[in-house]
Q: What sequence folds into this?
């Protein structure tokens, strides 16, 4: 029998079944992040040529495990927690088929462990992409397949919960914007996982000898519908987190439900085309296919992100101005709670995702410009701006919020938490900027030795490339320190943080027995008030529809940066050897 | 009053949109369309466009073509690798294999070549340095690109697709001569 508790601090309702699943998914994700973070140290200290820590075989093994744990296991586990939160808590609904959700979780857990075991056994150093015909051990692929199936099961539990909420009328009107964003993420997840199954199942059969050939180009095209689209789940999810945090901290409401939701619909329609970004310099792909797909059909998904880039900070600005912070263009921003890691994490995530991740992604995803960027270290620089400072930092900010609200623990080391987003974000920004620079100088990604020791023919990179890799690596070490601080605070708070009233312990998650009945004191969903809808909007008087001028200026700054950087890259392209058909 | 509560209007599509958002959407959409147009425009006016000419092949068949060119046009050897100087404007071949770019090519500045590229085993990354031209080399596919080296010099060919433990030793060479 599922019941609810209300968090006395935030007012959120938690369903007992869903809460346990949120906790275990979030904790599994954080464990994957821990593994990825430790491995990251091996990666940056090896690519820092003067240190060159690991031997070649171990470097490629560590890089493989780092990529998979960070890009797949960490984010997707955490997103499952977000889906359960956005459905059961925001809609005040019970969880559909908790048994299936648990089955999904355990499949994911077994899959993640199996894949890691395969990589650490040493015969599966094939990178996250596992391009055929290089072969990994069968349980490398099987682990990924089990993980994907488990994720799919949890996604369908999420959809089932939405149906129940609708039928039992647990909320008024339409679903909230944050839930709408979670639905977007879930739809993209289904597409992603289906693509993964289409390519990984045959690859698994090939690894055990039932299929004797997999076309290497076909593998690339389909695999990237998994590899890139899985990162688009992150985009939809972390944008939803931005809206959620803006709502919780500032009481911000969407500037326009219509605009924000329309932007999400554009994500659903177009984001998945991005697998083309990886195929731009491949043999035999037609120009029309590349241009249409790489631009998400006329950059309509980029348009969507540019819209969120205005409406998220815009909604904060409107809320702040209503509180009287109206001086000049930026008083609302200057007087934001910069010492609160929930806000600073979210805002650094927003800014770095737009200025670094978004712009570089569009530039290198341009059909011809990709020629001077493909497979250089520019590529990991880009996706560290999207997945690390973008998604991971947003999820970290949310975690700071969840420690008291979901886990009912007081956060330990609050002074460290205050600094953590700046250390992590700042270190990452250094790593990103200098790796972008090194990539422009031609430094390769996934490469053990930029000195080419042992090669019959040599090549020498300019000295600046070494300097940039060194500075970038120092930034990376700083980011790892910031990541370590996050893990210390989070795990420490769960274990040693002061218990807040009406808390349910983490270990009880698994048994469900010891959950104090006094905690879940709202027994029946019927007794629960329906999630109330927003009141009609009152536009601030005299604003003539220009309610967030400061944000508008910031958005124009983004645009100018974007335009200048975009054309600089065309200029650079025009200087390389002429090529044609 | 927040983003995590249901919208005021059930049919949220009917909500009014502020002027600021409309202006921004207009600006952003315009920029998106400009970026979209840049790619076809570059195909017409730009000089760096990747050809789509490619053929399915096998390592044996492709290897034979490379060997034929080597037999005809080798001018010397360097570190045990043939240095080949095919006539200007002709078809030139390079293959990637564990862990070598084969052979070394000697090309003439400002002359166009039909440059063929394929892999004999795993996927490789053709990364011409320091010009920084990067191509994916996929086994089973022969890519043909018209290239016109426009600066003389010695160029390195780095492998930038991970291909195993000796990946970092996979370095090739192309000479471009000012004649």
A:
């Amino acid at each position: 029998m599922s019941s609810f508790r209300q968090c006395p601090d935030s007012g959120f309702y938690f369903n007992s079944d869903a809460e346990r699943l949120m906790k275990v998914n979030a904790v599994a994700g954080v464990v994957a992040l821990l593994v990825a973070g430790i491995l990251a140290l091996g990666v940056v200290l090896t690519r820092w040529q003067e240190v060159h820590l690991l031997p070649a075989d171990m470097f490629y093994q560590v890089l493989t495990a780092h990529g998979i744990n960070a890009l797949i296991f960490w984010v997707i586990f955490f997103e499952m927690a977000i889906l359960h939160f956005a459905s059961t808590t925001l809609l005040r609904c019970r969880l559909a088929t908790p048994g299936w959700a648990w089955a999904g979780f355990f499949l994911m857990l077994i899959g993640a462990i199996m894949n890691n075991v395969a990589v650490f056994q040493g015969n599966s150093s094939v990178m996250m992409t596992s391009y055929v015909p290089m072969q990994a051990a069968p349980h490398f692929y099987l682990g990924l397949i089990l993980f994907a199936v488990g994720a799919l099961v949890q996604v369908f539990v999420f959809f089932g919960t939405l149906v129940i909420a609708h039928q039992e009328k647990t909320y008024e009107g339409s679903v909230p914007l944050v839930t709408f964003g979670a639905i977007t993420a879930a739809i993209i997840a289904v597409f992603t996982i289906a693509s993964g199954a289409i390519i990984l199942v045959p690859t698994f059969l090939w690894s055990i000898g039932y299929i004797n050939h997999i076309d290497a180009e076909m593998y690339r095209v389909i695999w990237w519908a998994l590899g890139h689209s899985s990162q688009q789940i992150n985009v939809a999810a972390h944008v939803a987190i931005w809206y959620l945090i803006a709502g919780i901290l500032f009481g911000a409401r969407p500037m326009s439900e219509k605009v924000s939701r329309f932007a999400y619909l554009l994500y659903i329609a177009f984001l998945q085309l991005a697998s083309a970004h990886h195929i731009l310099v491949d043999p035999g792909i037609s120009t029309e296919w590349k241009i249409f797909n790489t631009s998400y059909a006329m950059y309509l998904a980029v348009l969507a992100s540019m819209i969120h880039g205005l409406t998220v900070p815009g909604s904060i600005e409107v809320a702040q101005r209503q509180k009287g912070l109206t001086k000049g263009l930026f008083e609302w921003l200057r007087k934001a709670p910069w010492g609160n890691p929930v806000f600073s994490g979210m805002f650094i995530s927003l800014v770095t995702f737009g200025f670094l991740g978004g712009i570089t992604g569009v530039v290198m995803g341009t059909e011809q410009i990709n020629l001077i960027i493909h497979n250089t270290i520019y590529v990991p620089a880009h996706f560290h701006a999207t997945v690390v400072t973008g998604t991971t930092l947003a999820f970290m900010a949310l975690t700071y919020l969840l420690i008291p609200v979901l886990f009912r623990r007081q956060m330990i080391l609050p002074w460290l938490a205050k600094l953590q987003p700046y250390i992590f974000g700042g270190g990452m920004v250094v790593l990103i900027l200098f790796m972008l620079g090194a990539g422009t100088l031609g430094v390769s990604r996934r490469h053990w030795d930029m000195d080419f020791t042992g090669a019959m023919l040599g090549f020498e990179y300019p000295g600046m490339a070494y300097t940039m890799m060194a500075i970038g690596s120092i930034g990376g070490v700083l980011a790892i320190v910031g990541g370590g601080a996050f893990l210390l605070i989070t795990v420490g708070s769960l274990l040693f943080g002061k218990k807040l009233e009406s808390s349910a312990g983490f270990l009880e998650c698994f048994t469900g027995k010891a959950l104090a009945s006094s905690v879940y004191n709202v027994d029946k969903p019927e007794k629960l008030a329906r999630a109330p809808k927003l009141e009609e909007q009152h536009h601030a008087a005299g604003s003539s529809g220009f309610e967030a001028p400061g944000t508008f200026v910031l958005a124009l700054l983004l645009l100018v940066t974007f335009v200048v950087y975009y054309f600089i890259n065309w200029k650079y392209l025009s200087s390389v050897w002429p090529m044609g058909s | 009053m927040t983003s995590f509560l249901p919208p005021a209007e059930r049919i949220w599509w009917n909500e009014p949109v502020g002027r600021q958002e409309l202006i921004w959407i207009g600006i952003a959409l315009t920029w998106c369309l400009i970026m979209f147009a840049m790619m076809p425009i570059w195909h017409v006016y730009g000089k760096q466009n990747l050809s789509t000419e490619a053929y399915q092949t096998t390592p044996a068949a492709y290897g034979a073509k490379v060997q034929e060119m080597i037999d005809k046009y080798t001018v010397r050897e360097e570190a045990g690798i043939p240095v080949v100087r095919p006539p200007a404007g002709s078809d030139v071949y390079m293959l990637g294999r564990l862990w070598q770019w084969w052979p070394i090519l000697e090309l003439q500045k400002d002359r166009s070549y039909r440059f063929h590229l394929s892999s004999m085993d795993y996927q490789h990354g053709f990364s011409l340095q320091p010009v920084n031209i990067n191509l994916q080399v996929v086994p089973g596919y022969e890519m043909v690109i018209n290239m016109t080296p426009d600066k003389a010099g010695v160029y390195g060919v780095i492998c930038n697709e991970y291909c195993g433990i000796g990946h970092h030793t996979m370095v090739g060479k192309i000479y471009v001569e000012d004649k």
